[in-house]
Amino acid sequence: MKVDVFSLEGTKTKSIDVPEQFSEEYRPDLIRRVFLAFMSHNRQPYGAFPEAGKRQVVNIPKRRRALKTSYGHGIARTPRKIVWHRGRQFGWVGAFSPNTPGGRRAHPPKPWKIYDLKINIKERRKAIRSALAATLDQEVVKERGHEFKHLVSVVDAKIETLQKTKDVVQALHALKLETELTRVGERKIRAGKGKRRGRRYKSKKGPLLVVSESCPLQKAAASIPGIEICEVNKLNINALAPGGDAGRFTIFSEKAMEKIKQEQLFMNTRTVAQKAAPKKEAPKVKTVEKKTKQ
Description:
The chain has about 290 residues and is an alpha/beta fold. It folds into 2 domains: about 1-45 and about 120-185 and about 205-270, Ribosomal protein L4/L1 (Ribosomal Protein L4, Chain: A); about 45-115, no CATH class. The protein is built from 9 helices and 10 strands. The strands form 3 sheets. It has a 6-stranded mixed sheet with strand order 2-1-5-10-8-9. The radius of gyration is 33 Å and the shape is elongated. About 25% of the residues are buried.
């Protein structure tokens, strides 16, 4: 499978063969499964204070001659605390028990609960390869909501050397991504309580720029709304398929494509070793002739 390489001026320069990783079968079910496992690792543990609702003095014996007893009062055995008393006349208020105001919770959340979901290494790598293949499928990318005239997947390696934000914006306009930048530049106010919790605005995901290594482009494009920059060896399912939906508009630098091919990223190590190792000839079996007695 071949893909076109574009210059920073938006012109097609050549075509290259894509690495083997981009020929994986598109598996949206596997991508969603790995995404949920990825997000579970970011979940913050929480729990109730162990002594919450248990700090009241509750001691009401039910025996006949005990001190401050509730024997003979015809009341339920719900734990109570004494608010006032006049001789053997007491003013009780329910406490400590889950069915009382201010009491403990019956089954509070436990901070030691483990939320992490396990995922096999081969499944995770296969999901990343499937998400990489989806970035080259124009129908899947459009279905995700991206707006573009033609799918630009690989750009000249010079894009990694850009040091100014205006140069990055100019290059994206040359690649005919004006409508995409306009789409991700809009934001709306979130509905609900999230407005009070540090996430007042909702914005859309824009193009993902994949570079080969740490470069000036990471700082130059950081302030453009919707644009994200990621090093190729740090790609994950959240960057390629935000929300578990594959088909994000992804632009690879030419050097990043070469690095994927040379280092065999996201491939199973055993499969790579088997392909790289020379084929061994089958050992020759020696035949021993049996001696016959005369």
